[in-house]
Amino acid sequence: MSNNSSNTAEPAQQWQRLSPWAILYFIVNTGYRLIADGFLNMLPVLVLFVVNVERKIFWATWGGGIALLALVAYGCAYYATFRFRVQGDAQVLLHKGVFTKERLALRFARVQNINLATPFYFAPLGRTNCQFDAAGSSDKEIVLPALSNAHAQQLRRFILASKQRSDEEEADTEQETQVATSADLALPNHEVAKYGLMSNMALLALAALMPIVNMVDGLFEQVVIANLDAFFNAHDLLAAYAEELTLITLLIAAVILTVGGSVIMALLRFYNFELFIEQARFRRVAGLLERQQLSMRFTKVQSATIKQNWVAVLLRRYTLSFAQVATFGPKHQQDKQSLLLPVLTHAQMTQMMATMFPWFANYDGDLQPVSRRYFWHRVGLLAALPLATVSCSLAAFLHWAFIALALLILPLALYHYCIYKRLGWQLVSHQGQEFLIHRSGLIGSVLTVCELFKAQQVSVVQTTLMAKAQVATISIQFASKRLTLPFMPEQQARMLADRLLFHIETDQRAWF
Length: 512
What we know:
7-stranded antiparallel beta sheet
């Protein structure tokens, strides 16, 4: 493909090969997928190898060498079968596969994002990976690896311009594809590290380590616990508390390792975070080992979610995400459809939300609660009834002292009251458009903003008892998520459902 000075120059139409550097991408990507998808299945074999096999270095070297040669051979074969073609201004065609031949066709109209990702091993070579994300499914994502930066930018701009013309948009193409030179939002890396503390990556890392700890329990006890116990027993002042100190040390080490790993994972993903706002489009660039460039048009945003858990409350930070049409696939593939701004101050969060929703700059946060019957329903069904059953059964068959378990109703009632108080909703009108604000949470909160006409399905559920109490539960399916408001006053639930149906049926704007 020749480099044309025009931003929207048409690429070559014939079938094209990738650069030979793409072999490196195929090797790394295949190796990563084998490890990520088969890690848990390989754990028993690895444990047996560590515990029972002698001459570990020798056999590990041979096994690693054979695996590396197999990956190189597969990467070369995959490269040899890979062809792609841009067919006019309509679609991208792709032929690939070693053992299973694949023929893919991705129409420009189905493209949600065209993202450019530069792994660390391509950065010195001036190469990048061009990733096409299609609406609806992540199973057939197209990736063109090892394109030159100019080639990838030209291809991206051409497809976006063709898509824009097919959608009959009125915006100027040159302005739409203009690249900003300075970031509208840049996050220093010490702020990015806070996302590691705020996210659940530490818990995920700890959960991932548990199978390993269970399998090598004997080896861990001999190498770690025995040495710690011996260390504390060697000191007269500590010997009496050796077991307790060993346990405390292990707990502290586990916390440091998991939290430290979570911070490292956050830095790897969002290192040198920059966000550009270019003519009704977000463009995010971030990453340490791989510089990921993700773009998203304002019109493609299905919902905006502001999250603040208890750690974020202490740090006074927020996480903001803009979601597109949800895909059906692995979680990491679904994340590619969302633009995540990991850690923002209140002012930054308000500024980014106001960029997408201008009315948010003056948002007062005055949400309407659901019916108080929701609180009593949760306390009765999820707290009082189970506690009464368990405490009375234990008291009758074992000892009457177990009746004291009923006192747990107090903290459980407080827990359900916090959930009830956080749950709320509000309708906001702005320039003929209506938006639903939905809030949930416990100590922190999750605030979601969706435009009504982007709803896909609305259902109002009311049992016999709820009808007598004049309350109803409304459930709304958007393209990115489902929102539920339980035990709303019946009149409000019917009104909200009618407003949603009115916008769904009358608004003809494209929502994806």
